[in-house]
């Protein structure tokens, strides 16, 4: 059960051909102020541990059992087909989704205080016939949440996205006044409730080069972004922008805000990942449950090598623990 000061967190081990299973096992290298329960196929995790020469042991998860050093507690979920490190197999896509479903179910029932996700491979899930664009959208659907916001934290930055996993050509039409307003409300609310900021200041990027150059390089700033910002400012929200994205991330400007709202995935994430890859955290705002994740993908090239850096997973667990504590304080 989730106790006040010792949350139980579900760690989904993700794509079985990727680095997720071995990274999850490396969580046993540290002592955590939480009970970490790895969701995955126990034999797969044992096989990866043996392969990388790790002394970590696998124990079957039982609620209430105290964590032990050098051991990971695994809530066994069987693979559909044997997994080979580095080789994607669409037959295991339902397994990957079952890990997420089980974790969500545990959060809803109160068994888990939150979810930390190791990476999945979006393409192989789609290849299996399940339209899938990412955990963010999947968890929104599974928790019946109409809108969630992806935010990455790292390198001293918090970068939220107005749009997530959609083709670049679809971005301008997706940035509607309603989307932008709801997104900013979610970012603002969660920065207060989950990150402990009293009056967060959000730097909002424009969509076009030089924020549209007064309408000469695009009109979204004038017609969509500025009116939304004006409306929310009138309510007291501290919003700066729309700012030209090329200079938004220079230290002097960045220092004037607590978070950035970028208009699309590759406007914000390359900057953050350049500054912090391997140590950043992806967090989903607006969900009724806590969810954090690594900042990297399945790294098929490293799977089974023992060379994958667990830094981002560790940071994701730390953030989930701190968010669970904030939630308890505000309850
Ligand atoms: N949280 C997630 O589930 C998540 C996040 C990002 C990407 N993805 C997915 O992962 C798949 C592969 O994506 P990609 O190839 O663009 O990115 P990737 O992050 O898997 O790999 C990019 C490079 O970073 C290296 N790298 C990644 N993780 C590392 C680690 N922990 N330690 C050391 N080096 C590491 C890889 O070896 C590779 O050279 C895609 O399907 C993508 O959508 C999932
Ligand atoms: N956009 C994320 C990143 O670059 O880290 C990644 O694709 C994972 O997204 P989900 O959390 O939605 O799976």
TrEMBL record:
InterPro entries: PdxA, PdxA_fam. SUPFAM superfamilies: Isocitrate/Isopropylmalate dehydrogenase-like (SSF53659). It is an enzyme of class 1 (oxidoreductase). It comes from Parazoarcus communis. Keywords: Cobalt, Cytoplasm, Magnesium, Metal-binding, NAD, NADP, Oxidoreductase, Pyridoxine biosynthesis, Zinc. One of its GO terms (cellular component) is cytoplasm. It catalyses: 4-(phosphooxy)-L-threonine + NAD(+) = 3-amino-2-oxopropyl phosphate + CO2 + NADH. Pathway: Cofactor biosynthesis; pyridoxine 5'-phosphate biosynthesis; pyridoxine 5'-phosphate from D-erythrose 4-phosphate: step 4/5. Binds 1 divalent metal cation per subunit. Can use ions such as Zn(2+), Mg(2+) or Co(2+). Belongs to the PdxA family. Catalyzes the NAD(P)-dependent oxidation of 4-(phosphooxy)-L-threonine (HTP) into 2-amino-3-oxo-4-(phosphooxy)butyric acid which spontaneously decarboxylates to form 3-amino-2-oxopropyl phosphate (AHAP). It holds the Pfam family PdxA. This is 4-hydroxythreonine-4-phosphate dehydrogenase. A divalent metal cation binds at residues 165, 210, 265. Substrate binds at residues 135-136, 273, 282, 291. It is found in: Cytoplasm. Its cofactor is Zn(2+); Mg(2+); Co(2+). HAMAP family: PdxA. PANTHER family: 4-HYDROXYTHREONINE-4-PHOSPHATE DEHYDROGENASE (PTHR30004:SF5). It comes from the Bacteria. Its main location: cytoplasm. NCBIfam families: pdxA (TIGR00557). One of its GO terms (biological process) is pyridoxal phosphate biosynthetic process. Its EC number is 1.1.1.262.
